[in-house]
Amino acid sequence: MALLGASLLSASLQAQSTEADLKARLADRLVYLRGCWDSGKLHFDSSGKLLSKSSQVSTTLCGFDPKKVQLENNKLVLRGSRVGLAFVDNQLKPVNLDKSLQVEIDASSSGDYSPALDSIFAYHFADMVPLLPAYLQGYAQKGAQTTPSTQSVAPVDPNAEHPVKFNVKNPSGITPPVLIKSAEPEFSGLLRGIQYNGTVVVRLWIERDGTPSHLSIERPAGLGLDENALAAIQQYRFKPAMQNGKPVLVELKVEVNFQRY
Q1: pTM of the model
Q2: Angle made by CA atoms 89, 93, 94, in degrees to the nearest 5
Q3: Which residues contact 252 (CB under 8 A, 6 or more apart)?
Q4: 35-75 pLDDT, tens per residue?
Q5: Cα-Cα end-to-end distance for the chain
Q6: What is the tens place of the pLDDT at every residue in 155-193?
Q7: C-alpha span between 32 and 9 (Å, rounded)
Q8: Among 11, 47, 219, 240, which lies 20 to 30 A Cα-Cα from 228?
Q9: Of 64, 69, 72, 65, which is closest to residue 107 (Cα–Cα)?
Q10: 108: helix, coil or strand?
Q11: SS3 for 149?
């Protein structure tokens, strides 16, 4: 009986997550919210199920840098800052968004937080690639570097050109489409207060009625800007391309430049 009691106690101690263990595992390490939640305060049960309410953001806005790791009142509390990811020179580069983020996880009966942590966080961005939207999957699968480097985003150019540029494949005899209605891309609230620039290149078709279709990202910027660019372009309307007096389907590339300084 004494040996059995000692054995059970040993197993219990091995399952217990101490604050020191948790700090070694998480502190100052970039992790990613699998659920891409956008709330600044997230509360999970011991299995990693979200108990608080939150909408979702782009996969490229779901990084988390937990600076403080503490056990408080029978729960694990992580405090840190949200981190975005920008595509620069075909690499993902982390950008501190200067937005605080707190994650609370209820303790399990064993005191082991590992199952909840593994449910809530991915420890490598490559694990997040399957969660990327369809219009970014093609880019990611072409070999984009998915390990964030330590370099910062390129500085803002205050003399940047007009935010939208067009490049149309224009075979001989086809009059290119003409933009007659545009929409300004929106900026995520998570990006307010930071300086950044980025260009999203979108490939699309202009249908015979002047509406855009088959949108895909040819070159992403990250930081949630790709989704914003697509949302704006979907509202565009064109005078269609013409050939021999009839509207024809053409392919178009649009560059959307985001600037904030």
Answers
A1: 0.74
A2: 165
A3: 166, 167, 168, 169, 177, 203, 204, 205, 206, 212
A4: 999 999 999 999 999 999 999 988 989 999 999 999 998 99
A5: 70
A6: 233 333 333 444 555 556 788 889 999 888 877 667 766
A7: 34
A8: 240
A9: 72
A10: coil
A11: coil
